[in-house]
């Protein structure tokens, strides 16, 4: 089974990157979202990715061709009618995902494999809504896919070996390094390492041990890492950080409150909006 025609549900920051990464490696890619406004925003993100890919890979013509090949639609039936693989990147809310998969299951061809990009929900939480648990699993992308090119593949007890291997093959053909997650794990491999690190930094900030810039500088000087934790928060997006922290311990909830009051309520969501803990051009 080789997966070629790809549909991405949800065209936010990561959904747009998944579309571009897929198209850049020569596969047909269609993006679906629920409104024209969402697609207008997605179009702007995709336009901006042309420069990112051209700079990183050194092939402006290929990057522009990838952008021009991507289709966007608000018609779910049209989006999935020829799909071999549907990658779901809708908000991290189980109710929204349930509604999405119930609609998807009724419209997608029987051969279509479904893959969730969920960072916080296990695929087994979602599988009952898909109507085809044997053809459902997780394919988790890291932000800035073109350079942070891991593709974490995680199935459930119901996922068929054929579907799993088909998604591993798809990951390889679209420029990813497949990470075979051998059993379900909240946070996969990457976020199981990353989230405790970011949480430790947020606790230092909330407990007034040091400010964000000092914490970042300490980490970068001490380890040689290119980014500090609060720079990573800005890259990931402060909305995502807020949702994760609001379900943590009391200190994490204080951090979530700080994010909301000092940043999110003022439209400072990180790199995507030009300002978060830092300002960006």
TrEMBL record:
* Phylogenetic placement of the source organism: Bacteria, Bacillati, Actinomycetota, Actinomycetes, Micrococcales
The protein, known as: 3-hydroxyacyl-CoA dehydrogenase
Q: Where is this site: Important for catalytic activity?
A: 140
| Molecular functions (GO terms) | (3S)-3-hydroxyacyl-CoA dehydrogenase (NAD+) activity; NAD+ binding
Q: Which InterPro entries does this UniProt record tie to the protein?
A: 3-OHacyl-CoA_DH, 3-OHacyl-CoA_DH_NAD-bd, 3HC_DH_C, 6-PGluconate_DH-like_C_sf, 6PGD_dom2, Mito_3-hydroxyacyl-CoA_DH, NAD(P)-bd_dom_sf
Give the EC number(s) under which this enzyme is classified: 1.1.1.35
Q: Which reaction does it catalyse?
A: a (3S)-3-hydroxyacyl-CoA + NAD(+) = a 3-oxoacyl-CoA + NADH + H(+)
* Pathway per the UniProt entry: Lipid metabolism; fatty acid beta-oxidation; Lipid metabolism; butanoate metabolism
Return the PANTHER family for the record.
HYDROXYACYL-COENZYME A DEHYDROGENASE, MITOCHONDRIAL, PTHR43561
| Record-level GO BP terms | fatty acid beta-oxidation
List UniProt keywords, sorted A-Z: Fatty acid metabolism, Lipid metabolism, NAD, Oxidoreductase
């Amino acid at each position: 089974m080789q997966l070629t025609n790809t549909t991405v549900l949800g065209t936010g920051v990561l959904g747009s990157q998944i579309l571009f990464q897929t198209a850049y490696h020569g596969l047909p890619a269609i993006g679906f979202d629920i409104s024209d406004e969402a697609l207008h925003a997605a179009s702007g993100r995709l336009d901006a990715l042309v420069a990112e890919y051209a700079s990183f890979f050194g092939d402006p013509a290929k990057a522009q061709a990838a952008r021009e090949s991507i289709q966007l639609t608000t018609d779910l039936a049209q989006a999935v009618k020829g799909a071999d693989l549907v990658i779901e990147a809708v908000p991290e809310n189980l109710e929204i995902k349930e509604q999405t998969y119930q609609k998807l299951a009724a419209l997608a061809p029987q051969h279509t494999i479904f893959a969730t990009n969920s960072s916080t929900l296990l695929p087994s939480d979602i599988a009952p809504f898909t109507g085809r648990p044997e053809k459902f699993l997780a394919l988790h992308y890291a932000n800035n896919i073109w350079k942070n090119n891991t593709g974490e593949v995680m199935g459930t007890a119901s996922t068929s070996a054929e579907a799993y291997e088909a998604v591993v093959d798809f990951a390889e053909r679209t420029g990813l390094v497949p990470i075979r997650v051998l059993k379900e794990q909240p946070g996969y491999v990457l976020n199981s390492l990353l989230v405790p690190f970011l949480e430790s930094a947020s606790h230092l900030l909330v407990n007034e041990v040091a400010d964000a810039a000092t914490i970042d500088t300490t980490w970068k000087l001490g380890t040689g890492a290119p980014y500090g934790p609060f720079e990573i928060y800005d890259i990931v997006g402060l909305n995502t950080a807020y949702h994760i922290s609001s379900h943590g311990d009391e200190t994490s909830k204080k951090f979530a409150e700080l994010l909301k009051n000092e940043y999110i309520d003022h439209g400072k969501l990180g790199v995507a909006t030009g300002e978060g803990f830092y300002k960006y051009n």
